[in-house]
Structure formats: structure tokens, C-alpha cells
Request: fold
Amino acid sequence: MDEDLERMTREELIDEAKRLRQGIREHRDCSRHDLCWHHPALWGLLPDKTDPIPVVPEWPEFIRGCIKYRQSLDEQMPNAPRTDEPYEE
Reply:
């Protein structure tokens, strides 16, 4: 699956590492409501091009997952800044 790496020069590998790092940083630096979005741009960094269609939970299960995710943020980052700014599209 990653045979392309074996054909790359040192410089190409460095460029690829930088490109992947930038994509990871963009994902890492998401905040507020952006934490909840589907992130196909991150997967687009891979050389194998697919267009995966996610299995989407029905609303009640989806909301339960959102609550669980938000609770995990409280547990993992209890001192992170909080905001009550409303969601804006």
C-alpha cells in the first residue's frame, strides 16, 4: 500500500512528511464546533484515493456520541478554556 514511499528520493520524503504534518496540524488545531465535523481533507492526504461514505448513526445515537465526546473532553482536558458562544454557520 505504501510502495510509493520506496520510490521517493530523500527530498521527496521530506516534502511528503512536511505535507502530512501540515494536514495533521490543521486537524489538531480545530476548536469549538469544528471539532465535530467530518474531515475528508485529512484523509485526502493519503495517496490511495477513496471516497469513503461514513455510516451515520440515527439522531438519538448520534447525539449520545456527541455527549460522550464532550464528556471525554472534560475528563481529558478539565482546564481547557470554555466558551458559550452560539454556533454560527
